[in-house]
Each structure stands twice: as C-alpha cells, then as structure tokens.
Design brief:
28% of the residues lie in helices and 32% in strands. It has 4 helices and 7 strands; from the N terminus they run E-E-H-E-E-E-H-E-H-E-H. The strands form 2 sheets. It has a 5-stranded parallel beta sheet with strand order 2-1-3-6-7, covered by helices on one side. A two-stranded antiparallel ribbon has the order 4-5. Helix 2 packs parallel to helix 3. The radius of gyration is 16 Å and the shape is elongated.
C-alpha cells in the first residue's frame, strides 16, 4: 500500500489517504506500507456563517499542529523494521527540513516542495 498523509490535498491515483496524525499512525502500525508521502502543516476546517448570503462556508484556520508525530512514529518503526520509501511533499520548506532531520538516521528521505494549497482552493470558495 502507498500512504498519502495530507489534511487538504487529494491523494494521487493508487494511494490511500490519511487526513489526520491518528489515522496515519494507525495505518502504519497495522498494515504493510511500501511508500509514504507526508505533508507537514495541518490547518483546521472552521465553518462560519455567511450572513450576507444566508449560508455556512468553510474556511481554513491555521494552527501549530503538524504531521511531525508521524515522522517520530516512523523513526521508532525504523528500530524494528525497514521503513517504506518516504517523501515529504510539503509547501513549507522549513517544516519539511525539520521532518527530514527527524528521519535522518532512517534511510533516504526525498523532499518535494509542493505548491502552497489551502481549503479555499480545494473547496472552490
């Protein structure tokens, strides 16, 4: 299985998607994963009333939560078994470097700087 860990982006064809840290760690702990692609930043989805249009809209809300706990879990996994191929696909180069440092002793980690993305782009408004 290929595991794509991202709170906003859609998984590429043929990849299983995990949206949360908990979901990603559960999958890594329970299933055989051959390849992992991890984002760094997490934003929260906040529903807000649009009084001008009488509707409810979704807005991204930045927070300090990241997918770094998944990197720490992978580092612990490396003590007992071979790690899957790991790619960091974050639009946050500093965050990707932090995760790469966590995984430094665990084999080859690729960093792909992604185009910045937010829920407004994905959800169309």
């Amino acid at each position: 299985m290929k595991l794509y860990i991202d709170d906003i982006r859609a998984a590429p064809e043929g990849w299983h998607l995990a949206r949360t840290v908990t979901e990603a760690i559960r999958i890594l702990a329970a299933l055989e994963v051959a390849e992992v692609s991890i984002d760094h930043d997490i934003s929260h989805r906040v529903m807000m009333e649009d009084t001008a249009h009488g509707s409810v809209v979704s807005r991204p809300y930045p927070c300090s939560e990241t997918f770094e706990p998944v990197a720490w879990f992978l580092r612990e996994m490396a003590k007992n078994r071979c790690l899957p191929k790991i790619t960091l696909h974050s639009a946050n180069p500093a965050g990707a470097k932090t995760m790469a440092a966590i995984l430094a002793d665990c084999g080859t980690v690729e960093i792909e700087v992604s185009k910045p993305c937010n829920r407004l782009e994905i959800e169309g408004g």
